[in-house]
Amino acid sequence: MISLTLCSNFISFMKSLRVVIISMSICFGMFAACKRGDSGANKTTQGDEIVFQKREIFGASLDETGALSLGDVLTNLDHNDTILCKVSGYVKEVCQVKGCWMTLVSGGQDTSELLVKFKDYAFFMPKDLGGSKVILDGVAFTEVTPVDELKHYAEDEGKSQAEIDLITKPEVQKKFMANGVLVLERN
Question: Phi and psi at residue 141, in whole multiples of 5°?
Fold first, then answer.
């Protein structure tokens, strides 16, 4: 009687262990996919051909819901010190030294820019991301950028020493501290 109870308990334990192992395998697979920057694929059609494009996520995970246009964010910054938001736009340029900053534009004829940095330098952008459509999640704000920092950005852009020497005054800039970046369309 005791051995029958032990056998029954052992079988129950093994079934529970099997469920735990399967659950852990599923969770590990999902975690591994997130770490690769894999957030799924977009389907687009080109003629009769279906093309799958991989979205990329850098930093904190995010999706495209609720993203404001760059124009809306820049307008709101005229009346607010900071804005916690998602913003969509196109990458104009990326720091060519290590990808530690980028500029965001709305595209078209609008020349307004948003200087984007990445929270705690936790992630960087690929240097060839220019022209790509992205969504950022974080905080938009206005800040005075000192001359030495402006010169540093000019060096990162590869500007000549003559161009760098022309920078003599601080600038009021609209900036964004990104927690995460979702690349929607890679150029």
Answer: -160, 165
Q: What is the pTM of this model?
A: 0.69
How many whole angstroms separate alpha carbon 4 and alpha carbon 10?
10
**CA–CA distance, 130 with 142 (Å, rounded to integer):** 23
DSSP designation for 80:
-
From CA 176, how far away is CA 141, in angstroms rounded?
Answer: 6
DSSP states of 119-185: GGG-----TT-TT-EEEEEEEEEEEEEPHHHHHHHHHHHT--HHHHHT--S-EEEEEEEEEEEEEEE
Cβ atoms of 122 and 59 within 8 Å: the answer is yes
pLDDT tens string for the chain (187 positions)?
A: 555 555 555 556 555 545 444 444 444 443 333 333 433 444 445 555 544 457 899 999 999 999 999 999 999 999 999 999 999 999 999 999 999 999 999 987 778 899 999 999 999 999 999 999 999 999 999 999 999 999 998 998 889 999 999 999 999 999 999 999 999 998 8
CA distance 169 to 151: 10
**Tokens representing 73?**
């964010």
Structure tokens at 135: 């969504």
